Amino acid sequence: MTLSPVMRDTMLAIVPSLRAYAMSLSGNFDRADDLVQETLLHALAKIDLFEPGTNMLAWLFTILRNVFLSECRKNGRELQDSDGIYAQSLKSQPEQYGRVEFQNFRVELDRLPAGQREALILVGALGFSYDEVAAILNCPAGTVKSRVSRARMQLAERLSIADVADFGPDRVMRAVFSSAAHQSGARRAELGA
Predict the structure, then answer these.
(1) Domain 1-78 matches domain 87-161 at the CATH topology level
(2) Pick from 109, 110, 104: which is nearest to 80 by CA?
(3) Where does 1-78 sit in CATH, by number?
């Protein structure tokens, strides 16, 4: 089978998602780009194995994951940045509260076991269904659900998230906003009277 223009366009449309997934696996922009390139080369070489009408996104994600795991085995180690030192060297220090929260989230995400982190990213960040992730990871959907649930619980515990109200400004900042709104309302009432 040859690569049709429709298949080519579909593959090209998937590249940003492949890059995001590769980045989540490798933690390095250059390595992520190399993984995507290697994935596309493998896919093009084996395009005759792709069954038209099936999920090309899942097929390419499976290839990318297999390329990554093969590299890890070949290198004899998995490149992770669990302590965040390498990631910090790539970025400037956060200057806003949201960036600090995101950095804390990223550190805690990296501390999750690899299987849980991978399942959570595929389901939560990339929007795959449990069944699609099960196909990508070659495991039962129940295992994927369990990994995602455990990952979410660990992140919530480590980030001290009890409910939705814990997102955004902390209690002190909410009190400041509330006080400022109250004072502004009182001042408008005085001016209007």
Answers:
(1) no
(2) 110
(3) 1.10.1740.10
Q: Residue ranges of the domains in the chain?
A: 1-78, 87-161
Which of 154, 63, 73, 68 has its CA nearest to residue 117? Answer: 154
Residue 33's alpha-carbon distances to 23, 60, 109, in angstroms, are: 8, 14, 21
Within 27-139, residue ranges assigned H as helices are: 29-45, 56-75, 85-90, 97-111, 114-120, 130-137
Q: Which residues, given as ranges, of the chain have pLDDT below 50? A: 78, 91-94, 173, 176-177, 180-184, 186-188, 193
How much is the CA Rg of the chain, to the nearest whole Å? Answer: 22
Tokens of 65: 């994951």
Residue the block writes with tokens 């970025």: 91
Handedness of CA 157, 162, 166, 172 (dihedral sign): negative
- What whole-number distance in Å separates Cα of residue 121 and Cα of residue 150? 13
Residue 158 DSSP code: H
What CATH architecture is 87-161? Orthogonal Bundle (1.10)
46-99 pLDDT, tens per residue?
Answer: 888 888 888 889 999 999 999 998 888 776 654 556 666 655 555 444 455 566
User: What residues have CB less than 8 Å from 86, skipping those under 6 apart?
Assistant: 27, 28
